[in-house]
Design brief:
The protein is mainly beta. It contains four helices and 54 strands. The strands form six sheets. The protein has a 14-stranded parallel beta barrel. Strands 6-25-30-33-36-39-42-45-48-50-52 form an eleven-stranded parallel sheet. Strands 14, 15, 16, 17, 18, 19, 20, 21, 27, 28 and 29 form an eleven-stranded antiparallel sheet that branches. Strand 18 and strand 19 form a beta hairpin. The longest helix has 15 residues. It is globular, with a radius of gyration of 25 Å. The chain starts with a strand and ends with a helix.
Length: 620
């Protein structure tokens, strides 16, 4: 284990073997071991503690806590073989058949879980219509109506009689709102003027209807329903209601031989110091973090962006979901060769006061929300965006972040604003040589604050990554690589280099949103175009009322031959625009300090320089 910030290398471990006996493989016993490690190592000729966990599963009910009382010596938690910290509860057998063909039920004490795993794989929460299809939202109620009197729903003709007549109270409605989504519990329904309209629970009705920031509820937004037993019509689907779990197994499979896992714990590891005394030098090696849950959305979920969600009238109280592992006021925290899998919210979150957080050769897959999250967003009540951006609080900004040689896939499975790697207010972040694919929203999304000039951000490095098939859930106003917010001009320019990006949904392969400034983008391969109808481009700049952007783009290899069209800002290799409909920019690229060298277009095969970028990009 190393401490690069202070130039230290730790080479003399005091080794503790733990978990050889199965009865010791639980969170409480492991916490006691961590607490007692300092005493065990006292007087030994060592410079760090290495706790070697025996292969197996360690059930975590309360997060393992590393705080100011943890040993001052560096600690390495090392897994031998497949070592899993799990927040899940497993069961086999005990099913009974229902009257419906091939649908079984199992008595459960608690039905608030939102994920179910069968033999280690995510099962499908029953929904209507099925995945890949959506209905168009209908709504009723003037803007000045009280929120609890407004209604949302669907055309009655879109809902089968069996569903409408059977009553949808207790099911959930999911709204896809451009770059965000909302979830609401149906508390009542009524049929009127050809519509089936729902009353939703008050706790989420207020922010959904009264939020003061985009995106708002409107017609023609895709939506669907989840978690009603009568939606359960296909193999591997499940629903939970009234003390029972319902499941349809594959035909010919004995349901009582399947292993079911229900997530219970929200967090597995919490590294929490204080501003005056940070927790330092904690490393996890070869550890799997698995089966966390998050039940807050049972009461509603109103996303603003990047899985951050709002509460209260006007939607001015903003929060971020919990993570399987979190840090606050911590320094030099490392994850080497780890796996984050089957998680119900965020995989990892570095919150306020984290300085030095590194991921290397780590895999993140099948995550309900965001993958790896860094930096401060809006956690505190405020009457507007961003209580944290003033330079006088720069010391608490998350900084010195590294994500290298990692694989991130199947992120945003439930909360589709989830990006693979997401950062708010951060500085000195490096995202290099990662492979990222099958992501609900953006692949790499860095920055926050939009046009606000009181910034602490800067010195981003996004290089040598392979990114494709992103924006698979919310295909609007995002990109494979996305930036937003103004940078501190005293910091080095940010670098975007050597990436191989296949454009999918959203606004192109690389998107500089509002406030973005101070970038050098060079030697990248952008394959294809974004698919947003108003502007199909490979590279997109948002024109906003802010200072000079100072963005220089050179040596971009592309499959697109069109040049920049500043008059229409629609189509072609890149565009500068302000309005979401693709209307012209309010200023020219030159006026904004944007310089884009003509793209080098693929003719038949990629040229030698492009092939070198392609071969070098991604996880090594």
């Amino acid at each position: 284990m190393n401490d690069p910030k202070n130039g230290k290398k730790f080479e003399r471990p005091y080794i503790i073997a733990f978990g050889e006996k199965e009865e010791a493989r639980n969170g409480r016993a492991l916490q006691e071991c961590i607490r007692g490690a300092a005493g065990a190592a006292a007087g030994k000729n060592c410079d760090h503690i290495k706790i070697c966990l025996h292969e197996g599963e360690y059930r975590i009910d309360e997060p393992l806590l590393f705080d100011e009382d943890t040993a001052d010596l560096p600690i390495v938690i090392c897994g031998e073989g497949k070592t899993v910290l799990t927040g899940g509860e497993k069961f086999i057998g005990g099913w009974e058949k229902t009257e419906k063909e091939n649908i079984y039920r199992h008595r459960v004490e608690h039905t608030g879980f939102r994920q179910l795993y069968v033999n280690g794989k995510r099962a499908v929460r029953a929904r209507f219509p099925k995945r890949g299809k959506e209905l168009m939202l209908q709504w009723e109620g003037e803007k000045d109506y009280p929120a609890n009197k407004r209604r949302m729903g669907f055309l009655r003709s879109d809902i089968p009689d069996a569903f409408a007549d059977g009553g949808l109270e207790g099911a959930e409605i999911f709204l896809e709102q451009a770059w965000a989504m909302s979830v609401a519990l149906i508390c009542g329904q009524e049929e009127r003027e050809g519509k089936l309209l729902f009353k939703v629970n008050d706790s989420v009705s207020e922010p959904i209807w009264t939020r003061i920031y985009l995106p708002m509820v409107s017609g023609e937004q895709p939506a669907h329903l989840e978690n009603a037993v009568f939606f359960l019509t296909e193999e591997n689907e499940w629903a939970a209601k009234d003390g029972y779990l319902y499941y349809m197994p594959p035909v010919g499979v004995d349901i009582n031989t399947l292993v079911f896992t229900v997530p219970r714990a929200e967090r597995l590891v919490l590294i929490q110091g204080k501003q005056a005394k940070k927790v330092k030098n904690i490393c996890f090696e070869n550890i799997t973090f698995a089966y966390t849950g998050w039940e807050k959305p049972n009461d509603g979920y109103c996303e603003i962006q990047a899985t951050n969600y709002v509460e209260g009238t006007g939607g001015t109280k903003t929060y971020h979901p919990p993570a399987a592992a979190e840090t606050r006021y911590a320094e030099n925290i490392r994850f080497e060769g780890c796996t984050f899998i089957n998680l119900g919210a965020t995989a990892f979150n570095a919150r306020k006061g984290t300085d030095g957080i590194y991921f290397r050769k780590t895999q993140v897959s099948d995550v309900s929300g965001t993958g790896l999250c860094f930096g401060y967003f809006d956690e505190l009540p405020t009457d507007g965006f961003d209580p944290f951006h003033a330079k006088d609080d720069a010391e608490n900004c998350v900084r010195n972040v590294g994500v290298e040689d990692c694989l991130l896939t199947r992120v945003g499975a439930d909360f589709q604003g989830g990006s693979a790697i997401c950062a708010g207010y951060v500085r000195d972040i490096s995202v290099c040589h990662n492979t990222i694919f099958d992501i609900a929203y953006s692949g790499v999304a860095l920055g926050w604050g939009w046009q606000d000039p009181r910034t602490v951000m800067g010195n981003f490095n996004v290089s040598y990554n392979r990114i494709y098939n992103t924006l698979a859930g919310l295909g609007y106003d995002g990109a494979e690589i996305y930036f937003v917010g103004k940078h501190d001009e005293s910091l080095p320019l940010s670098v975007v280099e050597g990436n191989y990006v296949t454009c999918g949904g959203g606004l192109g392969g690389v998107y500089f949103d509002e406030g973005s400034n101070g970038y050098r983008m060079q030697n990248n391969v952008l394959e294809g175009l974004g698919n947003y109808p108003a502007r199909k481009v490979a590279l997109f700049f948002h024109d906003a009322n802010c200072a000079e952007k100072n963005i220089v783009v050179t040596k971009t290899y592309s499959t697109i031959a069109s040049d920049f069209n500043e008059e229409t800002a629609v189509g072609g290799a890149y565009a500068l625009t302000y309005m979401m409909d693709g209307s012209p920019a309010v200023s020219t690229a030159a006026e904004r300090g944007i310089s884009v060298e003509k793209f080098i277009v693929k003719e038949g095969e990629w040229c030698a320089q492009a092939r070198e970028i392609i071969e070098n990009a991604g996880r090594r």
